[in-house]
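Hi! If you just cloned this repository, the fastest way to understand the data is to look at a raw example. We've pasted two of them here, unedited. The first protein comes first, obviously.
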Amino acid sequence: MELRLTPTHRLRWIRDVFGNSIALVDWLEPASSLTIVNDIVVERLTPFPGREMHDPWRVPFPPQYDSLEIPVTDVYRVPSFPEDALAVRAWLEQAFTGVAADDAEGTMLTLCELVRKTVVYRRRLEKGVQSPALTLRQGSGSCRDLATLMMDAARHLGVSARFASGYFHCSASMSGHASTHAWTEIYLPTLGWRGFDPTIGAAVSLTHVVTGVSSHPRGVMPVAGVFSGNRADFVSMDVTVKTEELPLLASTGA
């Protein structure tokens, strides 16, 4: 991975913070603009770990986590918006009817599809995420809002879930006109973390590239910081995601 920034700076790396690579930057001189270019090469191997790779390996619902894992899994079962508990539970009781007692992964896929059917995707430029109750009340939201709703809904069902941020490899990204994307990851015994994208109502695939995960949406902000100056000094911020498929490299062997 290559990270290029302008203007003059001092880069300090802190790696693997809760599974994420974090870069801290100190600016050494004043500047009128900031440009961050992040180039990374990702190798995706097939076959992608879909359900067919472990079927009929089924995890009961609700999942029973091992006692050794509970100190960790419990962290991911605490709702990010506890004040929205009544609204989320009422929605689940009314709309969620796809529980399969012998298939936790299938149940989570049904929940993912329900969020997709309930909430109309709407691109938002405002910062932060909508609360689950607001998303349900408005019936619309961005990918990060749908991911947050599914994450908290899964937690109310007793399932460990986390927020995933990254991008979607598609025609828009190939042309350089894509933006960042968000979805939900579910932790299941034996199967580990499984990704679900409520924006499209399906499990993640090779087209999903995760760049950060967190127990709360605010934990995966791509860029965070402060600048010295007046509020009026901020003009705009533009983010672009561009992907390309590199030619396969022949293996050199041992």
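Ok, and the second one:
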Amino acid sequence: MRRAFVGRQPADATCFRANDRGRWQADLYGLARRRLRTLGVTSIFGGGYCTYGDPKRFYSYRRDPECGRMVSVAAIRTLEK
């Protein structure tokens, strides 16, 4: 994944860190901020949360793999005139 990002945008390398197991971890908020800035968005808020490292706020399958079922939905709602 890192290679795909950095291959297109070398500056994206700043959004990746190697972990203790030698795997790359991406700063998804950082990558999103970089993309938004290139599109001209100047007011960007939020970020800085880690679903893995904040068990009181978030569930993480990587942290707690015994879970049952989970689903996520993302949608764009269009308003008809």
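That's it. A detail worth noticing about the second one: The chain is about 20% helix and 5% strand.
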